[in-house]
Amino acid sequence: MDHFLFTAMSGAKQIALAQHNNANNLANASTTGFKQDLNDARSMPVFGPGMPTRVYAMTERPTTDFRPGGLISTGRELDIALKKEDTFFAVLDKNGVESYTREGNLQITETGLLMTGTGLSVMGDGGPVALPPADKIDIGTDGTITVHPTGEPEDVTVVVGRIKMVKPDLAQMQKNDQGLIVPKNGQPLEPSGEAFLVSGMLEASNVNVVQAMTTMIDLSRHYEMQVKMMKTAKELDESSSQLLRVS
């Protein structure tokens, strides 16, 4: 009886984890540059003394779907999107560690730092990008930032830096607990000359809302099935105990 109960219990646990992951995807369906997470599960035998007679469900390490989202035209000079799906912008995460993202809705702080919409410093080839007061900002396809400084003649432009872009091997990348993409070996990546961007556009999330909703319903039904199996195991156990008392 414990075999039956153990299988149903582990299945319910893993389905609940998958549901949590799917709910996070849905919550980020409108987040710029978001990449949805994928889950897989497989059966694993329980090893111990004697022969392995129990099997439990185990969720594989979540993977990230790196397929690009659609491009949205905004016309805003600080909105940028990457042309290739295997390229990223470099940013500093909340712990000051270089990480990577495709979130291109940039903004400038009062101190001139270039930040993402979620408040992460955008990295240049030599460190965080800082801009002087300017009347106009232009971001080239190679990430070069050119500004028309405030108070200068109209024909005066200054190159103030270049956004660091990378083109990693996606098989060696993973998502961290802040939702940023990082190398599995933890080492910063070198800038790539093969990464290009377009300004005045943003990349939408690659979450398919209809598919995510369908997955949510499917997972809910599977969870209910596992709970019913646990209840059935309890009823069978109670019936067996009653028969033993009668005998």
List the helices and strands and how they pair.
Blueprint: H1 2-27, E1 37-38, E2 41-46, E3 54-59, E4 63-64, E5 71-73, E6 80-82, E7 88-92, E8 98-101, E9 107-108, E10 114-115, E11 123-124, E12 127-128, E13 134-139, E14 144-149, E15 158-162, E16 165-166, E17 173-175, E18 181-183, E19 197-199, E20 201-203, H2 209-246
Helix pairs in contact: 1-2
Mean pLDDT: 87
> Please, what is the oligomeric state?
single chain
Kindly provide the radius of gyration, computed on alpha-carbon positions and rounded to a whole number of angstroms.
25 Å
Task: Tell me the major beta sheet.
Answer: 3 strands, antiparallel
Please, how many helices?
A: 2
CA distance, first residue to last residue:
20 Å
**SSE order:** HEEEEEEEEEEEEEEEEEEEEH
Number of domains: 2
Class of secondary structure makeup: alpha+beta
Strands ordered across the widest β-sheet: 8-7-16
Instruction: Report the count of strand segments.
Output: 20
Instruction: State the shape.
Output: elongated
Strand content range: 25-35%
Percent helix, as a range, is 25-40%
Describe this structure in words.
The protein is an alpha+beta fold and 247 residues long. The chain has two domains: 2-65 and 207-246, no CATH class; 71-203, no CATH class. The chain is 26% helix and 28% strand. The chain contains two helices and 20 strands. A three-stranded antiparallel sheet has the order 8-7-16, with no helix packed on it. Strands 13-14-15 form a three-stranded antiparallel sheet, with no helix packed on it. Helix 1 packs antiparallel against helix 2 (209-246). The radius of gyration is 25 Å and the shape is elongated.
